[in-house]
Write a structure and sequence with these properties.
Blueprint (H helix, E strand, L loop, with lengths): L14 H11 L22 H5 L11 E5 L4 H12 L3 E6 L2 H10 L4 E4 L5 H11 L4 E4 L14 H29 L3 E6 L12 H21 L4 E8 L5 H7 L2 H8 L10 H12 L10 E4 L7
Parallel strand pairs: 1-2, 1-4, 2-3, 4-5, 5-6, 6-7
Helix pairs in contact: 3-10, 5-6, 6-7
């Protein structure tokens, strides 16, 4: 047992007794409602070893990770966090200057410069990287015009990077995972706009909806090989691009009013979600869409 842990014994099925017991505890900053009826031993019989198994210290030593769109924003943060967590990390971007900046911050990160819209060049680049245990398909294009003004070129460009590149990169990586027989984890960065429509975002919303469906199909087909595939779907994130969008008070005010937590996501919020889903702590998490949105999609 851990003497630093305060214990309270009460039957939660007894409403009045539970209310009194919780009131007596005093102020609480963090609450986890975990109690349930299942098999196992009583709380009083839980040992330190049982508690140790739920330690959320996430590390990636011995893992090889690939992050696309790693030159800036969310991908930049994910690549740095994976490297800091011990993973042998490769960062992929189409902009060499961004990769050079990342490399200067962490020389251990391997960088690869390729335009994901180029199917053949991307496939060759990813094949040359070698075995990958953890894949984050983060690269994506945003922006757009009204539905009536959306043109074929806009659809083609968004789908080439946001959807086709996810399939292309994942195929190369997953084939290697299957051949090695050691499993793996894939995270596709999607968006709340996979579920929620947005004006002037026809191609973007359609592409992110496709990402969520690709994620589900991948989870179904690759799950038997112990390869987990999930999507992480953030709301507007305060990256450099996100902050530019927030400079429009009409957009920012309208969106913020719909978020129950009353704030936009930071890069770290998305990074932490991705690290969890990639980790062994999420061993039974497969085929989900994890919204990082302060409750925006709860209504």
């Amino acid at each position: 047992m851990n003497p630093a842990i305060r214990t309270v014994c009460v039957d939660l099925a007894d409403w009045a007794t539970t209310t009194k017991a919780v009131e007596d505890i005093g102020p609480v900053g963090l609450l986890v409602n975990n109690a349930g009826v299942s098999g196992g031993v009583s709380f009083l019989d839980t040992e330190e070893a049982d508690l140790d198994r739920v330690n959320m210290n996430i590390r990636f030593e011995g893992k090889r990770a690939l992050v696309t769109g790693a030159g800036k924003g969310i991908g930049y943060g994910i690549a740095k966090a994976l490297a800091a967590g011990g993973a042998e990390t490769t960062a992929l971007s189409r902009t060499q200057d961004d990769l050079d900046r990342l490399k200067a911050e962490n020389p251990a990160i391997r960088t690869v410069c390729v335009d994901l819209a180029d199917w053949a060049a991307t496939r060759k680049a990813v094949e040359d990287i070698g075995p990958v245990d953890l894949l984050v398909n983060n690269a994506g294009l945003s922006g757009g015009v009204s539905f009536l003004d959306t043109e074929e070129a806009d659809l083609d460009r968004k789908f080439a990077v946001n959807v086709k590149a996810v399939v292309n990169v994942s195929q190369v990586v997953a084939k290697g995972m299957v051949a090695r027989g050691q499993g793996g984890a894939v995270v596709n960065i999607s968006s709340t706009h996979a579920r929620l429509g947005a004006k002037n975002r026809t191609a973007y919303c359609a592409s992110k909806g496709a990402v969520d469906q690709v994620t589900r199909v991948m989870a179904l087909e690759l799950g038997p090989h112990q390869i987990r595939v999930n999507s992480v779907n953030p709301t507007l994130v305060k990256t450099r691009m996100g902050k530019a969008a927030l400079s429009d008070p009409t957009l920012s005010g309208s969106l913020l009013s719909r978020i129950p937590q009353g704030k936009f996501a930071e890069v770290e919020d998305v990074v932490h979600a991705v690290l969890y889903v990639l980790s062994d702590k999420a061993d039974m998490v497969n085929g989900i869409t994890l919204f990082v949105d302060g409750g925006l999609t709860a209504v």
